[in-house]
Q: What sequence folds into this?
């Protein structure tokens, strides 16, 4: 019987992107096994068309008993033989424990060591977060070489992204510059809005570029302030995209200017040139990997 392995991916888009080399490495080390991704809805969309996995399990985020029971029932029904935790929380380890997964592998953090069968000691070292996940595999004897971050879109998705930008007012033949002024943790990780506005306007004038502003619905006021610098030609997409649509739009860019954020790592996966602006977070740990 083929081993079925579950990988619990992080709840953050950027962290899940940085875990991609580890997911690929699991498949390369045990190619005869089925690899399944498990995660919350707004993250698992990343892994559609991902060639190194065999299935995706969507679970709910929450810490009440009802959600825990529902998640465990769903995971348990697939009879996984081994589980990798690329999360740090006690709660996600408890889910695997209650799902009766015989081998449970992850960092022994957040007082969850007793829930794991393979406890990996966390070493506080200055290194890129990609290696934070790869080190779990190294500790259990897996071979890891030449890590690469890659995401996969269907040609139809890319074409739809291109067409939709044109419908929103992008001029064909001009370079596309993406501006991503938001970040999940708010102002601490954000460059000032006026800085983005002045820079976007300079780039628009110098390169006759299409300026496309990304972000969540809550960041629409920031986008509108940037548009005030650029003019009516700026395209605002805040709060208007699914994750797959965001990926498709980013794939059409020639340059992406962003704070430290999930979309920054998506752009990096597509090898889009990036200007990343860091504040309190460490570029050494979470900068674009490539």
A:
């Amino acid at each position: 019987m083929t081993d079925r392995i579950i990988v619990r991916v992080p709840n953050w888009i950027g962290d899940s992107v940085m875990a991609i080399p580890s997911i690929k490495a699991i498949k390369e080390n045990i190619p005869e096994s089925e690899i399944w991704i498990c995660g919350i809805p707004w993250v698992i969309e990343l892994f559609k068309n991902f060639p190194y996995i065999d299935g995706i399990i969507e679970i709910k985020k929450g810490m009440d008993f009802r959600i825990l029971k529902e998640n465990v029932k769903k995971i348990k029904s697939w009879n996984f033989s081994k589980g990798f935790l690329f999360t740090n929380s006690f709660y996600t380890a408890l889910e695997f424990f209650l799902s009766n997964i015989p081998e449970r592998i992850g960092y022994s953090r957040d007082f969850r060591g007793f829930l794991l069968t393979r406890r990996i000691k966390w070493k506080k070292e200055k290194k890129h977060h990609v290696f934070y996940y790869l080190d779990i595999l190294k500790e259990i004897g897996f071979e890891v070489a030449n890590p690469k971050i890659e995401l996969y879109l269907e040609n139809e998705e890319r074409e739809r992204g291109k067409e939709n930008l044109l419908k929103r007012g992008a001029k064909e033949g001009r370079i596309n510059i993406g501006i991503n002024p938001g970040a999940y943790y708010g102002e601490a990780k954000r460059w000032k809005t006026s800085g983005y506005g002045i820079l976007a306007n300079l780039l628009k004038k110098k390169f006759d570029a299409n300026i496309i502003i990304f972000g969540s619905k809550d960041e629409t006021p920031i986008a509108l302030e940037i548009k005030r610098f650029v003019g009516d030609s700026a395209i605002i997409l805040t709060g208007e995209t699914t994750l797959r649509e965001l990926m498709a739009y980013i794939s059409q860019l020639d340059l992406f200017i962003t704070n430290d954020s999930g979309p920054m790592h998506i752009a990096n996966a597509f090898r889009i040139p990036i200007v990343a602006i860091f504040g309190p977070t460490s570029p050494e740990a979470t900068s674009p990997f490539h």
In short: The chain has two domains: 4-139, 155-286. Residues 193-207 form the longest helix (15 residues). The chain is about 40% helix and 15% strand.
